[in-house]
Structures are given as structure tokens and as C-alpha cells.
Design brief:
This is YqgE/AlgH family protein. This protein is of the alpha+beta class. It is 26% helix and 34% strand. Strands 1, 2, 3, 4, 5, 6, 7, 8 and 9 form a 9-stranded mixed sheet that branches.
């Protein structure tokens, strides 16, 4: 098995799957969708597999259109957890890529979904951020498995996404994913 880390270039639009031994509670068993990344400026994204079980309307009374009030809310990351970010993406399955809309205003999100109901939309509390060089260091330590954000990952139930992502892109990590967080309960 090749132990050389994936070279880090721009990872905007990629997924990061946390290594099973990454114990940082902010990222343990998380999958992050990166919206921006450069070696000079760092990286920005949201955790896409931590639903809060709440809708946006339950958190904000001013989000009272049917789309917004029913929009699922996820924990986006440890940075500014009181801030709400609206994010959407659109798949082009024939070309196996997607278009990401990050940090949308409510009216713009409504406009996008009205024009194309196939757009996936979510709200996030906070976001995940890395300073310049920080993500590259973490990748070189094998803290993250890296994958393009291809169609099946965006449609998987959040509770299955982390394990299935690891099994697909780093099968040896998929085996570790079955281990309990606390081995003493094994």
C-alpha cells in the first residue's frame, strides 16, 4: 500500500473524510465539503454529515418561506457556530461534476431552487476553516482522506456518509471505521 499522501492542490469542491483516529471532537467521524482552498489563503468548508434534526424555520422566524422554513440545518464546523450559512449544489450526472453555491442570501437560494428544483440546499451553523498551510500539514499526516464530491456522496444519508466515503477511497481506513471510539466498550 502506498503511504505517500495525496498531493495537495486546490481542493475546492472536494470532500475530506476524517481519519478514524482523528479524535478532535470538532471533526471526529466528519465529512467536510470544501468550498475554497489555496496554499496561500487556507481552506473553508462545511461538515455535511452532522444534521441537527432542526429546520431553519425552527431557528429563525424570518425564514418563513416554505423552502427556508423546512431547510435542514447541519453543524457546519467550529468556526462562528452561531452564524447560519446557506449552501446549495447541483449535480450534472452526465459529466460527473457539480456546481457549488456557498454563502447564499435567502432570496438567492429561493431563486435558484425555483429555477431548478433538483438543487440540493442545506443550512449550516458555523463552518470549518484552516489557515494557510494548516490543511496541507493535516493531509501530510494522513488526518484526511480526499475525494471529489461525486454524485452518490451527496445523496447518502448523513449517518452512513463517513463510513462509505472511507470504504470507497481508503479501504484500509474503512476497516478502522468499524472500531468503536472507545475501545474499552468493545
Amino acid at each position: 500500500m502506498d503511504e505517500t499522501p495525496t498531493p495537495v492542490q486546490s481542493l475546492a469542491g472536494f470532500l475530506l473524510g476524517a481519519h478514524p483516529n482523528l479524535i478532535d471532537p470538532n471533526f471526529n467521524r466528519s465529512v467536510v465539503l470544501l468550498s475554497a482552498h489555496s496554499n496561500e489563503d487556507g481552506a473553508l468548508g462545511v461538515i455535511i454529515n452532522r444534521p441537527t434534526g432542526k429546520s431553519l424555520g425552527a431557528l429563525r422566524e424570518d425564514m418563513n418561506t416554505p423552502l427556508l422554513e423546512n431547510l435542514p440545518v447541519y453543524e457546519g464546523g467550529p468556526v462562528s457556530p452561531e452564524e447560519i450559512l446557506l449552501v446549495a449544489w447541483k449535480w450534472n450526472l452526465s459529466r460527473q461534476h457539480f456546481r457549488l453555491f456557498f454563502g447564499l442570501e435567502p432570496d438567492k437560494l429561493q431563486e435558484l431552487v425555483d429555477a431548478d428544483p433538483t438543487i440540493e440546499a442545506r443550512a449550516f451553523l458555523g463552518y470549518s476553516g484552516w489557515s494557510a498551510g494548516q490543511l496541507e500539514t493535516e493531509v501530510s499526516r494522513f488526518d484526511w482522506a480526499i475525494s471529489p464530491f461525486v454524485h452518490p456522496f451527496g445523496k447518502m444519508p448523513p449517518q452512513n456518509l463517513w463510513r462509505q466515503l472511507l470504504e470507497k477511497i481508503r479501504p484500509e481506513w474503512g476497516v478502522l471505521a468499524d472500531f468503536p471510539d472507545d475501545p474499552s466498550v468493545n
